[in-house]
Amino acid sequence: MGRQPWAVQAPLIREASGAPVLDAQGQLQYRAFEGLLTRAAVSESVKAPEVLGSIAMFSIIYLLLGAVWIYVLNDKIQKGPAPVTVPPAHTEPGELLAAAAGRAAHERSMSEAKSPPDDDRPGGAGGTDGR
């Protein structure tokens, strides 16, 4: 395609059949008034120091985010994985039923961030509102 003079390319001029129109040198013809030429794409209201300041601020923000990511990653590596509890070699049917019932009733939180329900809320610890 080569170097083009467009920041936003204008649509091609097409024949009724849909084929693009070519000039005498075989170059594609464009609707120039619908495109944005590179020379017209320069902002007159935004100056170079403002652009440089914007790039610098984004660089600082991304450097800080990278530092936080490295800190969190290092913390996770230093702590290592959570210990795995090995289940007993043989389980009784009653133990399996108790484990399944505990999961269905959501007696334990799946994460440490969740807290048990407060008794002050409507419905108390059971989570029902008396209906």
**What would you report as the Rg, rounded to the nearest angstrom?**
33 Å
Provide the low-confidence segments as ranges. Answer: none
- Tell me the helix content: 25-40%
Strand order of the largest sheet: 1-2
Task: Report the major sheet.
Answer: 2 strands, antiparallel
N to C succession of SSEs? EEHH
Helix- and strand-based class? mainly alpha
Per DSSP, what share of the residues sits in E-state strands of 2 or more residues?
under 5%
The number of helical runs is 2
First-last Cα distance: 71 Å
- What is the β-strand count? 2
- Shape verdict: elongated
Question: Could you explain the architecture of this structure?
Answer:
With 131 residues, the chain is mainly alpha-helical. Among the domains are: 1-42, no CATH class; 43-78. 34% of the residues lie in helices and 4% in strands. The chain contains two helices and two strands; from the N terminus they run ββαα. The protein has helices at 48-79, 93-104, and strands spanning 6-8, 36-37. It has a two-stranded antiparallel ribbon. It is elongated. The termini are far apart.
